[in-house]
Amino acid sequence: MSMESVKPAYRGALPKPTPETQPFWDAAKAHTLILPWCRDCGRPHFYPRSLCPHCLSRSLEWREASGRGTLYSYVINHKPAKGFDTVPYAIGVVALAEGPRMLTNIVTAGEPTPENLRIDMNLDVFFDDVTDTISLPKFRPVAS
After folding, report:
1. Nearest CA to 113 among 74, 61, 79?
2. Phi/psi at 5 (nearest 5 deg)?
3. For burial by CB atoms within 10 Å, which of 52, 99, 134, 140 has the most?
4. Are 104 and 12 in contact (CB under 8 A)?
């Protein structure tokens, strides 16, 4: 028997991968952030879908993203949502270095407060292995 600490079971909502999003979730499980890029206009987008939102091309490919971004906007939630026992927690929009914006959790070393979260602060992705098959990309401030 392993002496590792047991992580409590995740009780929050889980994504349901679709054919369009499955590559994203497979990469997240491998702790890699990928984005769909359009071969015609050369622009990335997020969320994954079958058409480029910029030029409507179907010629898409997945590319690894840097995992870096800046905090575009956020809210600190003080009321527990279903599956979340710990409050407060921060939900933010991250402007990825590649251009698209991503809605995600922002995790800080201390309690999420306006003093700990600043618009345009630099962030890095990390992955929370919430089940055997799903890892959620979350962001945290870059260590200074």
Report:
1. 74
2. -70, 145
3. 52
4. no
- Give, in order, the Cα–Cα distances in Å from 114 to each of 10, 64, 90, 134, 136: 27, 31, 10, 30, 24
Closest CA to 134 of 5, 22, 29: 29
Cα–Cα dist 96/67, whole Å: 7
Name 119's Cβ contacts closer than 8 Å, sequence gap at least 6. 71, 72, 73, 74
pTM for this structure? Answer: 0.87
Find the angle CA(56)-CA(61)-CA(66) to the nearest 5 degrees. Answer: 110
Distance of CA 137 to the CA centre of its chain: 4
DSSP string, 64-78: E---EEEEEEEEEE-
pLDDT digits (tens, 9 = 90+) for 84-103: 667 888 999 999 999 999 99
For 81-85, what is the mean pLDDT? Answer: 69
The rounded Cα 114 to chain-centroid distance in angstroms is 20
